[in-house]
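So, is this right?
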Amino acid sequence: MFDLTGKVAVVTGSSRGIGAGIVTLLARQGAKLVVNHRNSPEAAEGVVAAVRDGGGEAIVIQADVSQSEQAQQLIKQTIDTYGQIDILVNNAGTTRDKLLMTMKDEDWDTVLNSNLSSVYYCSKAALRPMMKKRQGRIINISSVVGLAGQAGQTNYAASKAGIVGFTKSLAKEVGSRGITVNVVAPGFIPTALTEVLPPEQIQSVITGTPIGRLGSVDDVAVAVLFLASEEAAFITGQVLSVDGGLTMQ
């Protein structure tokens, strides 16, 4: 079950955190991986080394996927190396948290470009080769913040909510070509993006989560693996919240 042997997967922003966890699990299930980073070459090479130590196959491709030309080059290099792309996981993202009244235009633009425009650029570049094969999986990493909002994160929430609308629209465009497009919306997962949160906010999240704990990178990676697999071939345009029930509250 969930066998990805013979598949090629690109995971953007995968030199650490959730992206690295996704790479590790997909490789373990037989996929060949592309580890993408913007400016973390040593961390990316470390992820590749871990995959190879486990008997898997992976390469590093540097690209700032918030830039159209670099996103296109990422997909081109993938196909030049492996001859195909079967799975695209749009995971790259950043935060610039501030209240809207004090937010700079640069904070808005950086987050929207990194989190949302990157999804557009990479998905568009991957679609043509997927459509030729009449098969593909696009999995976009959103956030519970995109579903419920969060004070001080209007830019981040807008970008992650935009991913949901983008996904549902694209799923309707390409479903007839055998391509599924889905969202995984993690709750609060301890990563570099969340480690800056004050302890009282973390405790508030745990208290408001029915399962009573924070999530883990592995929790998210398993959800991505399912949606990337043949077992999920009849699922598209959906949002899978991996949040311990937080958004039910």
